[in-house]
Specification:
By secondary structure, the chain is α/β, with parallel strands linked by helices. The chain has helices at 33-43, 56-68, 107-124, 141-152, 163-172, 181-186, 195-207, 246-259, 264-279, 289-296, 323-326, 333-336, and strands at 4-7, 12-20, 23-31, 48-55, 72-78, 83-88, 95-100, 126-129, 156-160, 174-180, 210-217, 220-226, 229-234, 300-304. A 10-stranded mixed beta sheet has the order 5-4-1-8-9-10-11-12-13-14, sandwiched between helices. Strands 3-2-6-7 form a 4-stranded mixed beta sheet.
Length: 339
């Protein structure tokens, strides 16, 4: 039995071209939000099951790649086109060469995937609902039904969603919601990323069905709100190599803490450290567990006084020696750079 189940309806195959010591290297990995979260959870020693749909020849490759990372695959297998992209990173920045969204899930696929997720999710007791690779892959209302049924049966539900899928999940009810400040602004809940603007939005999200809310703010301290009040959580300063995937790693770190039996407020520090370390890597969802635990000691947590938002945490942890060394990007791009 896995510690965590991740609903990752449509993982994607990622093909990335790198240049290493003057020669081209081609890397093939499984990707997509749920897969990146699963990868980070495995780095932190958590057993994970990914519930997904695997489509056509791309799906066959994805099954092998996901399982190769030590993740249990619980899948609906079907014919058609799977999601994939090809990126060229030889110039230092990602250049999209080709992208395929993949075929939408039909009613029978959805029913089977729903059943698999309920079965595995209730067995684990802790479930992450992540988004699909394509906007038209599945109806948003599925997230409402899954969130409601899982929680009614006793599982804890963590979501990392936006837009219609977020609204649907909130209607079903969730234990923990993670969202970025850009997504909050795009949904019209806040005008900017200031504490003063975001806190009312977070109260609104709680009133709509979230037990606790985490809002990331890029390099600024994330905000957290639950029954006991609001916190700011500041990650250690690191030299970022690629900020993509840091939010998914943060979510995975929080879930890893919960899976270990930590309280949510303590789990936030593990999430912040996981997100920070991932930002030092080119690979998405990557990070060595020991380095994350060391970085965790440098995460600063402070309460936001009620009625008086502040951008400066009032209490926290102290950075350990060697923090800069832990933040160095890896040199082995083949083993430590899934894209």
């Amino acid at each position: 039995m896995s510690d965590v189940t991740i609903f990752a309806p449509s993982p994607l195959l990622t093909v990335t071209v790198e240049q290493v010591e003057g020669s081209d290297e081609i890397h093939i990995h499984a990707g997509g939000q749920g897969v990146w979260q699963a990868r980070m959870l495995r780095s932190l020693g958590i057993d994970v099951t990914v519930c997904c749909a695997l489509t056509g020849e791309i799906g066959s490759v994805l099954r092998d790649r996901i399982a190769h990372e030590g993740v249990t695959v619980s899948a609906v297998e079907r014919a058609g086109r799977g999601a994939a992209y090809v990126h060229d990173r030889r110039g230092g920045e990602r250049e999209e060469i080709a992208e395929q969204e993949g075929d939408p899930l039909n009613r029978h696929d959805l029913d089977e995937l729903y059943s698999l997720t309920l079965r595995d999710g209730l067995e684990a007791g802790l479930v992450v609902l992540s988004g699909p690779a394509g906007e038209g892959t599945l109806p948003a209302d599925l997230y409402r039904r899954l969130a409601s049924d899982l929680r009614q049966a006793g599982a804890r539900v963590v979501v990392d969603l936006a837009g219609e899928r977020l609204a649907a999940a909130l209607e079903g009810g969730v234990d923990v919601l993670k969202v970025s400040h850009e997504e909050v602004i795009d949904d019209g809940l806040a005008e900017d990323a200031s504490v003063e603007r975001l806190l009312p939005a977070m109260h609104e999200l709680r009133s709509r069905g979230a037990g606790a809310v985490i809002v990331t703010r890029a390099s600024d301290p994330l905000l957290f709100l639950d029954d006991d009040g609001a916190l700011q959580v500041a990650s250690p300063d690191v030299v970022a190599a690629d900020s993509r995937g840091a939010g998914d790693s943060l979510t995975a770190g929080v879930v890893a803490g919960l899976a270990r039996g930590e309280g949510l407020r303590d789990a936030l520090t593990l999430g912040a450290a996981a997100g920070a370390l991932n930002a030092t890597h080119h690979g998405l969802g990557t990070g060595e567990g020991g380095a994350i635990e060391r970085l965790r000691e440098a995460v600063t947590v402070g309460e936001i006084p009620r009625g008086a938002p502040s951008d400066t945490p009032t209490a926290g942890r102290v950075s350990p020696d060697g923090l800069a060394a832990l933040a160095e990007p890896p040199t082995d791009t083949d083993e430590k750079d899934p894209a």
